[in-house]
Structures are given as structure tokens and as C-alpha cells.
Design goal:
Layout (H helix, E strand, L loop, with lengths): L7 H15 L6 H10 L4 E7 L11 E9 L2 E7 L17 E2 L6 H5 L2 H7 L6 E8 L5 E8 L8 H40 L2 E6 L5 E4 L1 H9 L3 E4 L2 E4 L2 H18 L9 E5 L8 E7 L14 E6 L9 H8 L3 H11 L4 H8 L3 H15 L4 H9 L15 H4 L1
Antiparallel strand pairs: 1-2, 1-6, 2-3, 4-5, 5-6, 7-8, 7-13, 9-10, 11-12, 12-13
Helix pairs in contact: 1-2, 1-5, 8-9, 9-10, 9-11, 9-12, 10-11
């Protein structure tokens, strides 16, 4: 297989596919399929996660390209549970074959080959354990059936050429997954605080939105969507909104622009308290002079909306009983003591007794202070996914 190191176009295409997979533009099966063809293998496997302990039934994760199904190459995403492989614990980032570990007779008679590899017609194995930045070792395996030739020196050299790229690509992939996880956490936190968020472009086209934003837009109470664009309900507010969006994008192009967020109030046809809107540019990290990819984030807060604080978290934060917590949440949502008692189906005197106990436990003396500490607490951040929106908003 000396030809594989001589075809630069093939090598360049393969490296491109590896980095495309790292960035999520394709699946990992795409470069693995190419490697299967290049090495004339029956299986190419990338083990992304291995169990931590031999004696525990912990599953890992592996991507396998190989086997046949209706004469098509089968891609298998399978749990990885094999800890008895003789290929584990090798020198990191070093390509090796079976011949580096044992004689052919030892391999042929090994339990691992007989009970696992032989079932899949796996005989020749070339492997490397790739270290990544988080300290994990990812396992890369290329195999051939017994009827094929063993892996040559040229095969090993070509594999050694692609290992550094696999390592870098896997590190990039790990960082992207980590950053996406952080982004999701921040987005969920914003949602739990009942803040609607939208990503828009210069024309006001909505690129992304969270659940609360969708709820506000669907209600038509203050905002609407026309041909995919964010617009305010009243013409005067809409004119001001367009001006605000333009100012935000224009200021972003100024070298010495402070980049401060811009704000406005939006009237609601329902007569409820106005919605508050803040727009802030999303920093760009590309080197282009054009703003085609520029975007801004719009925050919308409904100050008349009800608190979605988690009752379980509130109980733990303030040491209240379930009944006291329920009353506190009613009051935090702007209800009077009488209205809260009616909503909870309890007597007014019972509500008063609960309130006195709440004051004693929290050390406050006024109902307004109770509302303030609940609204400023982290109780809303403890809600579960199904609590994120009021029932009518989820429909």
C-alpha cells in the first residue's frame, strides 16, 4: 500500500474530512469510511469513551464503520463494554499491530481473538490510543480479515501521519461540545428567569429564539412576526424598534463604539404593563469587513409575568414548609393575601398564620420584603425542564 502516502490529493481530502467531522459539519463516519477504503479494512473503529472500571457494567461509546447489510457499508454507534482486550494500556499516541504485542501463535490462541474477533472475521489489527486534552484516551482501530495481508510498514507510516490530525480534531470537537454545553446552560438559565431571548440580523430577521420568546410572539401582545422579522405591535413602537436595531448595528461598526446595549419600552394591546426590550450586539470573531454575518441578541422581559420559581428549591432556600412555600410564591406573583388564600383554597386566618411563620423563619417584617427576596433569589434557576413555561405557554 505504498501508494497511499504518495497521493497528496487523497491525503488532503481525508484530513479535510477529519476536521469537518470535528466541527460537526459531517459525522465521524465520513472520514472513517474513507479510511476503511484506503486501508482495505473490514472495520474502522473510533472508541470515544471507555468504561472507567473493569468490574462495573459501565458502557463506553464507539463508532464502527464496517460489516455488510444489503451490500452497503454499515455504520454502527455501539456501547463499548470490552475491557479484556489486549490492546488496552499501550503507549499513548503510538501506532502498533498485533505483532508488536505477541507472537502469531499467542494471538491465534488468545481468548479475546477466539471469542470476540473471530466472530467478526477480525484477524489483523492496527491500533493507536490517542490522548486528548481532557486526559482521556480515545482508541482508534483498523482491522482486516485473516484472508487479507497483514498491515505493512507503509500502512503504519500512513497511520502515523494522520494520528496528529485525529488528536487535534478530537480536541477541537471536545471544546466545541463543551462550549455548546455551556451555551445551553446559559440559555436555560435565561429561560428560567422568564427572559425571552431572540437572535436577529440587521434586517430584524429572527435567527433563533427561546421558549419564552416564542410564547410572547405567539401571544401577539406587544410583538409580532411578519415575514420572519421581529416587529412591534403598534406602528409607533415598530418605528422606534427599527431605529433601535439600526443604531445597534451601526454602532457596532464604529471602531470606538462602547457597544453598550440599547433599550426601549413596548406597549401591549392587552393593557398590561409594557414589555421591556434590550438589544445587544453579539461580538464577531471573523476577519471580514462585511457585516453579513453580524447578529444581535434581543432580551424581552415581561414584568407582569408570573414567577416560575421552583417550590422545592424555595423550600430548601428558606426552610419553609410546603404550605408556606406555596403562599410565598403566590405573594411573589403579585397576589394579595386574600387572593393567595383563595387560590390555595385555605382560610384567610390560615394564610395569616403561614405568613407570620414565614416572617419568623426568613427574618423579614413586611410582605413587600418577602416578594423582593423571592424574586431576587436563585429559586427560579432550580426549576425542572417541564416547569420552564406556564402550562398555557407549552401548548
Amino acid at each position: 500500500m505504498t501508494h497511499i502516502t504518495q497521493d497528496f490529493d487523497q491525503y488532503d481530502s481525508l484530513i479535510g474530512l477529519i476536521y469537518d467531522a470535528a466541527q460537526g459539519e459531517t459525522g465521524w463516519e465520513t472520514p472513517l469510511r474513507v479510511l476503511k477504503s484506503i486501508f482495505q479494512a473490514n472495520y474502522v473503529t473510533l472508541i470515544l469513551k471507555t468504561p472507567k472500571h473493569q468490574n462495573e457494567e459501565e458502557l463506553g461509546l464507539m463508532i464502527v464503520v464496517g460489516g455488510t447489510f444489503d451490500n452497503e457499508v454499515a455504520v454502527q454507534y455501539r456501547p463499548y463494554i470490552h475491557q479484556l482486550t489486549p490492546f488496552a494500556g499501550r503507549e499513548p499516541d503510538t501506532v502498533f499491530t498485533v505483532a508488536d504485542l505477541m507472537t502469531e501463535g499467542e494471538w491465534r490462541n488468545s481468548d479475546y481473538r477466539i471469542h470476540w474477533c473471530a466472530q467478526k472475521d477480525v484477524y489483523h489489527v492496527m491500533s493507536v490510543d490517542i490522548t486528548v486534552n481532557n486526559g482521556e484516551r480515545l482508541r482508534f482501530r483498523i482491522t482486516r480479515p485473516e484472508s487479507s495481508d497483514d498491515f505493512s510498514k507503509e500502512d503504519r507510516e500512513f497511520c502515523e501521519l494522520i494520528v496528529p490530525h485525529l488528536r487535534r480534531a478530537l480536541n477541537v470537537n471536545n471544546r466545541l461540545v463543551h462550549n455548546q454545553s455551556l451555551r445551553n446552560l446559559y440559555s436555560q438559565a435565561i429561560g428560567k428567569l422568564s427572559i425571552a431571548t431572540l437572535i436577529i440580523d440587521r434586517q430584524g430577521n429572527i435567527l433563533e429564539q427561546n421558549l419564552f420568546a416564542r410564547h410572547i410572539l405567539e401571544s401577539g401582545d406587544g410583538f409580532k412576526v411578519i415575514a420572519g422579522r421581529l416587529e412591534a405591535y403598534y406602528p409607533s413602537d415598530n418605528k422606534a424598534l427599527k431605529k433601535l436595531v439600526k443604531e445597534a448595528f451601526d454602532r457596532a461598526e464604529e471602531p470606538k463604539s462602547p457597544g453598550l446595549p440599547l433599550a426601549m419600552s413596548v406597549a401591549r394591546p392587552s393593557g398590561e404593563v409594557n414589555l421591556g426590550l434590550v438589544i445587544e450586539m453579539i461580538p464577531r470573531f471573523d476577519m471580514s469587513d462585511h457585516d453579513n454575518n453580524s447578529s444581535a441578541i434581543v432580551y424581552i422581559r415581561d414584568s407582569a409575568g408570573t414567577s416560575q420559581a421552583s417550590s422545592d428549591i424555595a423550600k430548601k432556600l428558606f426552610g419553609l414548609t410546603p404550605a408556606e412555600t406555596a403562599l410565598s410564591l403566590q405573594l411573589a406573583n403579585g397576589n394579595s393575601l386574600e387572593e393567595s388564600a383563595e387560590a390555595l383554597g385555605i382560610r384567610r386566618n390560615t394564610a395569616r398564620a403561614h405568613l407570620r411563620s414565614i416572617f419568623s423563619k426568613t427574618g423579614i417584617k413586611r410582605q413587600s420584603d418577602l416578594v423582593r427576596i423571592f424574586l431576587n433569589s436563585v429559586a427560579a434557576l432550580g426549576q425542572t425542564a417541564h416547569e420552564e413555561l406556564p402550562e398555557e405557554a407549552e401548548a
